[in-house]
Design brief:
The chain is of the alpha/beta class. About 35% of the residues lie in helices and about 15% in strands. The protein folds into two domains: about 280 residues, TPP-binding domain (Rossmann fold, 3-Layer(aba) Sandwich); about 120 residues, no CATH class. Strand 6 and strand 7 form a beta hairpin.
Length: about 425
């Protein structure tokens, strides 16, 4: 029997939005709404602390000295700012060094739990902890929903992965919190022992079968309990209807040597991920990623924009002389530029893919032609923009994940 080739699937937010999960912008809107409920401002009750920090960053980036950024902050920028702000406020033994050089602007007072409080470090900490907790609860709520239309779409998602596993041994690394891939690949190794929900590192590093599923930033099934003396050990709770005890609010924070603080949560949110992944199982998952990349025969990026540097750098040496195809599933609206014709947008997923996998922009073609430069015709044909440079196979799909699920045969064809 011929041994199957090894396919590494890397999934990001774009893989889940067609199936009821929020986009990056949707997460921001949700956090803004929750902060309005829980952290309204004293002087302007129609806005809130999260929204105030978001506005300050937006205004700052819009100044003449920073206007070259040409971007709007996302929720990760805001969560990081909350952590960084706390580090410049005196906090006893945990006072950060930046406070000696950075003078923070006064922050507004908020109404918290019905009473007016000033803006000390603990309120910033509570804001960050509460928002992470609320975000995880929202993802669990969405994963429990059984809307008939979404159930039908999720079935297509599962059929897509069934098509992949028929042809390949599949390992999956996902930065998503949802359980769509868990449901699509029942029984795949995650490192958690099904008998007690505890994470056993050896199940990943010593496994004999290649397939595995690594929730690099956590999962809706992750909970926290005491494990081997660790008060904040991460365990697996298979039933989303059962009570969870993962709340980071009320727990000690993760403090870095630089003075930053991050919520102790069963998910990783915001920036500072290289600090947050020091805990198990994240540390094991992250170290395993390099081995998966090296051993893989092909790569499939599903809605992953390559924006996370700590993940992206694992692919820096993927072009090592082996002829290994890369398929990049993205979504673009009509009128947007193809990656090969886009000389200005350096922050799009396809543009990053060209850089990471060393595909010269002039080598990107569609049906043998480099024009038109917009995605319109490629999308209508349900086709790919492809790299024609020898040894650098790269195929980019612009129709999103749901359409990819409906054209599994086309996706598989790109792997040859």
């Amino acid at each position: 029997m011929t041994e199957k080739r090894k396919l590494l699937v890397v999934a990001g937010a774009g893989a889940s939005v067609d199936f009821g999960m929020p986009s990056v912008g949707g997460v921001h809107d949700f956090l803004l709404k929750k902060a309005q409920e829980l952290f309204p401002l004293v002087d302007d009750p129609k806005t809130n602390l999260y929204g105030s920090i978001f506005k300050s960053i937006t205004d700052y980036w819009g100044t003449s000295t920073a206007s070259f950024l040409n971007k709007t902050p996302n929720f990760e920028d805001v969560l990081y700012a909350i952590s960084a702000l706390a580090s410049v406020i005196p906090a006893g033994n945990f006072t950060g060094p930046l406070g000696a050089f950075v003078t923070k602007n006064p922050l507004p007072s908020v109404v918290q739990t019905g009473s007016v409080k000033l803006q000390p470090q603990d309120v910033l900490r509570h804001l960050g902890q509460t928002l992470v907790d609320e975000l995880l609860d929202e993802f669990r709520r969405r994963c429990r929903q059984r809307d008939p239309l979404m159930v039908s779409k999720v079935k297509e998602f599962g059929q897509f992965f069934a098509g992949l596993t028929e042809k390949f041994d599949c390992a999956v690394v996902t930065t998503n919190y949802d359980d769509l891939i868990c449901r699509s690949l029942p029984g795949i190794e995650t490192g958690f022992d099904p008998s007690d929900g505890r994470f056993k590192q050896g199940r990943i590093v010593n496994r004999t079968a290649w397939p595995c599923l690594l929730h690099l930033h956590g999962c809706v099934h992750f909970d926290m309990d005491v494990t081997d003396g660790d008060l904040h050990g991460v365990i697996w709770q298979p039933d989303l209807d059962e009570p969870f005890h993962q709340n980071s609010f009320g727990r000690l924070t993760q403090r870095t040597a630089e003075g930053n603080e991050f919520p102790t949560s069963s998910i990783i949110a915001g920036y500072g991920k290289t600090q947050q992944i020091q805990r198990l199982p994240f540390r094991t998952y992250y170290s395993e990623l390099d081995r998966l990349v090296y051993q893989s025969d092909a790569l499939l990026f599903a809605g992953f924009s390559l924006a996370d540097a700590h993940v992206r750098t694992s692919f820096a040496n993927y072009r090592d002389g082996r002829e290994r195809p890369v398929v990049f599933l993205d979504f673009a609206k009509d009128g947007e530029m193809l990656a090969g014709g886009d000389f200005d947008d350096s922050v799009s997923g396809p543009a990053r893919a060209l850089r990471v996998f060393r595909a010269p922009s002039g080598s990107m073609k569609w049906l043998g032609y480099s024009h038109p430069n917009t995605v319109d015709e490629v999308r209508r044909a349900r086709e790919f923009e492809r790299c024609t440079a020898p040894g650098k196979r790269l195929s980019i799909w612009y129709n999103g994940m749901l359409e990819a699920c409906r054209h599994t045969d086309k996706i598989l064809h790109e792997f040859g």
